[in-house]
Amino acid sequence: MNSPIIVGADGSDLGALAIEEAGVLAKRYERTIVVVFVRKTPVFDDGACSLFSVSSSCLREAPDAYEVLIQAQSAAILDALGVSWCFQVRSGRPAGELIRAAIENDATMIVVARRRFDQCRLPRYSVAGRLSARWPNSLLIMSPSTQHLFARDLRDGPSLGERYGLWLNRGSF
After folding, report:
1. I need a labelling partner for 152 at 20 to 30 A (CA). Which of 41, 73, 162, 163 fits?
2. What domains sit in the chain, N to C, each tagged with a CATH number?
3. How much is the pLDDT for 150?
4. Quick one: angle between helices 65-81 and 13-29, nearest 10?
5. Residue 132 contacts by C-beta under 8 Å, 6 or more apart in sequence?
6. How far is CA 140 from the centre of its chain?
7. What are the pLDDT digits (tens) for 67-97?
């Protein structure tokens, strides 16, 4: 079986585009999708939580409204495409958790959305920038820009990612 495609989802319109492009690629190359939402965890400890009569472990376990939104968004997009997919919720730093999900699932590709597009420069502090520096395999970064595209390893004609994304193909996809 082919390795799955990891897609980082955040509930935004551009995040939905990343899910859709991952679905198109999964259908084309007969892959499954693992949609990953990385939840933001509170930075305070149980001492600070006690001021509000809430434990930090309770906050980490409570379902997040974004989880429900992203799972519904993923279902609407991926079920319509007819691809197999699953949903994972993780806690931590987004780039690190996406890499960890890719390693655990033996994935060779990650798809993420990017907020800005400026002359092919990725800020080091962004999720896309960190992934481009740390992930050694294929990475598709969906960008809001429609004016410029950079693509490598285009196989069967243009897709959304090839029109709107930055494709870094390192290794085999």
Report:
1. 73
2. 5-168 (3.40.50.620)
3. 37
4. 40
5. 122, 139, 141, 168
6. 9
7. 888 999 999 999 999 999 999 999 999 999 9
94-104 and 127-134 helices, crossing angle to 10°: 50
Tokens of 3: 């390795």
Residue 143 amino acid letter:
S
114 neighbors 11 (Cβ within 8 angstroms): no
The CA–CA distances, whole Å, from 143 to 20, 22, 87, 93 equal 13, 14, 23, 21
Those residues of the chain that have pLDDT short of 50 are 49, 51, 53-56, 118-119, 146-158, 160, 162-164, 173
Ramachandran angles phi, psi of 94, nearest 5°: -55, -50
pLDDT digits (tens, 9 = 90+) for 44-59: 555 554 545 444 455 5
Per the structure block, which two tokens stand in for 151? 């693509």
